Amino acid sequence: MTAPSRPARPTPPLVRVFTQRFSCTPRGARLARQLALVCLHDWGVPEGTALSADAGLVVAELASNAATHGRVVGRDFELRMTLLGGEDPHAAGILRLEVSDPRRDRRPAVRRPACQAESGYGLRIVDGLAADWGVTDRIIGKTVWAELSAGGSPPVRTAGPASAPGR
Q: Distance between CA 52 and CA 59 in Å, rounded?
């Protein structure tokens, strides 16, 4: 006598999360980028892939902005990375990058840089690489987030730069 077979349950999508606090300094911003790349490598996204390169640029910019514009003496910034997808990290999925800092009053915005400016291009890079990005208020401070496509073609933006909240 055999047991009745059960219908196979669909496998829930795999979710990977990394969260770490860093000092609000240029050194903390560099460390955030380096640890993000190491974490992605551990998740099966090797350095040198498009996703790894894009994530490194986005984390570098958001962490640098947190250390420069979101700094409050004695407070850290936080990096949170979430990879949503199946078992294969290269299959269609989303990599969400979030950087939280304690300054709610300093909101990021894409601005046109001055002629031959040496800074002010970072959020233009984030806007170009990310499928979507925005700002969310917290009890203390804010979170700037960006979503990257984790394989396949990039997702279509749901809101343009002008209509997204906090830009």
A: 10
